[in-house]
Amino acid sequence: MPELVGALDQGTTSTRFMVFDHDGNVVSADQREHRQIFPRPGWVEHDPVEIWSNTTSVIEGALGRAGLEASDLLAVGLTNQRETTVIWDRATGEPVHNAIVWQDTRTADLCLALGGEEGPDRFRDKTGLPLATYFAGPKARQLLDDLDLGLRAERGELAFGTIDSWLAWNLTGGRNGGHHVTDVTNASRTLLMDLATATWDADLALAIGVPTATLPEIVPSIGLDLECVGPLAGTRLAAILGDQQAALFGQACFSPGEAKNTYGTGNFMLLNTGEASVASESGLLTTVAYHRSGEPLVFALEGSVAVTGSLVQWLRDNLGLFAETTEVESLARSVEDNGDVYFVPAFSGLFAPHWRPDARGVITGLTRFANRGHIARAALESTAFQTRDVLDAMTADSGVQLHELRVDGGMTANDLLMQFQADILGVDVVRPRVAETTALGAAYGAGLATGLWSDLDEVRALWSEDARWSPVLSELERERLHRRWGQAVQRSLDWV
Question: 325 and 312 in contact (C-beta within 8 Å)?
């Protein structure tokens, strides 16, 4: 039997379990989507019970397809949509409400009130984050207030966590002795953790209004040893990484100055800054990249974009422009260019580098000339333009001039988008052999924790290039298009 590790990848739209071998090859995989719940405009929820049920199904599915038992795995790594917030009853194991998704904007007024006279940077020195609807701490406070659960939370009857905590608790026993943990990458996305100490900060918890009795134990990302039950009985949970940090790890960006961009529901660019936490002055986030047990923390600068791949889903589901998301490329190719049409998908406001919760989606430049193809092309180009905005901010903060950008995620299969991304950045865009690097990063973490791979150099040697796109657009045209995009962004602001 070959040496194998598993990766549980719980994302915004689906849950997947994958098995990898020593060479980083996929042995087996299973995936299942879950519902997106929209109670009001700007609100987004998931059902944690549905996610746990899907988790069980995909684990059993992937193992069954390969004729494996959980005990055949050396260990399992867990990666998750990060800021999505769950509160559950410790005694019954039942969530008190649907999970509040990272895209949800219901905490806009709360974040404004918490900022007070100091504004959105009130907690940035300690947390590396602005006060924004994106993060988990205010989401938890909002739930506790809305459901009048403050006293139960203070008594320790309720547990708070991001999706990793919910799944780890269930995978290790649930109400029968489950471990209530979160790793440092996920904890760093709550506005409740002090970056300097990697511990919960009582003053932050008090100010934001989340009782410390609800908080999970913060553990290293790599080097856990938690015995699993249920669908993974017979193996151990050895690593937990937030999805974007897992993708950075899966792209083998282990050295300061190396960066990746993940194209999923949203887009997330991370730049490894090593053991130094670099404060951003350009609208980026300072976050933990990963923590191997017994070693110093590694940090990153991050630019988070809320809506990219989900815009293609919106064109499919809400406008009915095509039946399958893969059809967006052929529709966009039906026109020669964007026809001066720009699509700013600020459905949840604008994240990095703008941080404008008052923004909403706009399509600008429409004339009688514009057709379905122009809208599809403008939607794809919006992903590339938003990435350019983030890279410009990252360059300003770090002083690092990237010569190539490593990319991953489902949208990297779109050749038109990848070529336009290279054109609008002016640098090569490189896709690895394994494009789904989020799950791969979690698997690497589990394998490093159990000795399947001896060190980071051995993991780095597994990375290989699959495709490369080089810029062909003139610098003059590149800057003209980007200026036009900036005009469109200005028209999306001050709507709410």
Answer: yes
| Residue 11 identity | G
The pair of structure tokens assigned to 240 is 């937990």
Longest dimension (CA), the chain: 63
| Residue matched to tokens 């320790």 | 156
Band (pLDDT 50/70/90 cuts) for residue 191 is very high
Angle at 247 (CA atoms; ends 88, 225), nearest 5 degrees: 55
Output Rg (C-alpha) for the chain, integer angstroms: 21
Report d(CA 309, CA 264) in Å as an integer: 5
Structure tokens at 463: 């990375």
Mean pLDDT calculated for residue range 17-28? 94
Helices within 365-474 (DSSP H only)? 372-398, 415-425, 437-450, 456-460
Provide the sign of the torsion angle of the four alpha carbons 54, 59, 64, 65, taken in this order. positive
Q: What is the pLDDT of residues 441-452, one digit of tens each?
A: 999 999 999 999
- Whole-angstrom distance, CA of residue 392 vs CA of residue 154: 44
- Phi, psi torsion values for 36, nearest 5 degrees: -105, 120
Q: Is 190 helix (H, G, I), strand (E, B) or coil?
A: coil
3-state SS string for 61-90:
HHHHHCCCCHHHEEEEEEEECCCCEEEEEC
Instruction: Tell whether pTM > 0.85.
Output: yes
Cα three-residue angle 276-279-281, rounded to 5 degrees: 150
CA 268 – CA 390 distance, rounded (Å): 9
For the segment 258-293, what is each residue's pLDDT rounded down to a tens digit? 889 999 888 989 999 999 888 888 889 999 999 999
Handedness of CA 270, 238, 183, 232 (dihedral sign): positive
**What is the C-alpha separation between 124 and 469, in angstroms, rounded?**
37
Question: For strand 45-46 and strand 73-80, is the pairing parallel, antiparallel, or unpaired?
Answer: unpaired
- In order of their start, the domains of the chain are 4-244 (3.30.420.40)
240: CB partners within 8 A, 6+ apart: 77, 78, 79, 80, 164, 168, 181, 182, 183, 185, 186, 219, 221, 224, 442, 445
Peptide bond into 220 cis (omega under 30): no
The Cα 460–Cα 283 span in angstroms is 30
Beta bridge partner(s), residue 162? 85
